Amino acid sequence: MSEKHLILKSEARDDDFPLLVKTPTRGPLAVDVTRLYSERGLFTYDPGFMSTASCESSITYIDGEEGVLEYRGYPIQQLAEQADYLEVAYLLLYGELPDRRQLDEFNNIITHHTMLNETLTNFFTGFHHNAHPMAIMVGVVGSLSAFYHDSLNIKDPRHREISAHRLIAKMPAIAAACYKHNIGEPIIYPRNNLSYCANFLHMMFATPCEDYEPHPTAVTALNLLFILHADHEQNASTSTVRLAGSSQANPFACIAAGIASLWGPAHGGANEAVLDMLTEIGDVSRIDRYIAKAKDKNDSFRLMGFGHRVYKNYDPRANILREMCRQVLEQLAHTDDPLFELALKLEEIALKDEYFLERNLYPNVDFYSGIIYRALGIPNNMFTAMFAIARTVGWVSHWLEMMDDPNQKIGRPRQLYTGALTRDFLPIGGR
Questions:
Q1: Fold of 3-53
Q2: Which residues pair with 21 in a beta bridge?
Q3: Is the Cβ–Cβ distance between 256 and 245 less than 8 Å?
Q4: Which of 31, 337, 408, 419 ranks highest by number of CB atoms within 10 Å?
């Protein structure tokens, strides 16, 4: 990176203070303020860190203004059209696309790490039968550190790699086990002859009484969704993983922290919130009423699945999912499901209504992914768990990158204190 300087002028001091400006390979310049407190006694103030680069990373590039998303320099459109999910996972982990030998070896490693320790499966019986899958996943993923002592030395690159492989491999099995526990069916073991996505569908929908053959369209749709959700730069859950990892916590604890962050309706829970919203609207005849509510500043109702904090135009992932959404609805969905008709009508209105167009409130990835998951037979409360499966590779890639960074420090944000001034304590009788 080339270096420039920004001069900070102070009314209280005569001397100027040069701030290093870092130039990335792409994207906005970044002002380095690491010396601002130690040499000038100043903090920066940036709620939500919307203007703050918390790290350097070579994994994912986003241009929200232009609607660009790239993994390691590869446009998401090309990866979505041509790649397999584990091929993309390898790319995110190692920085380059694999050759045939490397991909076969990686597939074999992930496949043979898929099975859960039998003792671990007993954990599921300790959760209430209707516990939210994300609640179970937080606990079970965090507990993996109690089973894999052989690879918990975070200072050892090989141990870090093994842990990454285990997390990518076991997350689908854990998520499927959450579903089986919810519906009172036995946990289904993985099959090594199936692809990553097909194996997940098998673990979800097979029973000891009857095998399950995943529909090719379902496998294709799931592969696409997993690729599109694999990483998204320094979002809330990824930043959480990095912050937890900065304390040198083990990788399973870090990913459990990421799952907890993902659970919120403003993040990974948004696709579940979309279906809840559609259920609330209920019928096409009620759309106008709810659009009016969304436009009313005094009404708390929000149209979920529209707009994005980063993308100021169309979410590039949503563009890709639109066509897949239609294919899935045509081939797999129950045509009499009123929510599908409702969703498509809502999309049609939003793409024509000036209110939404002026505010760039286009349907986003959460809008379409929720509809697709429902068409695949996946219940609403599993939507965020699906997101967690896909995003695991992004989380571990960032964790690995952070652990390799010689400049990595424990995260310690500061604050603008607005509380009481120093005051004396009075015993309770004197208050």
A1: Rubrerythrin, domain 2 (2.20.28)
A2: 4, 31
A3: no
A4: 31
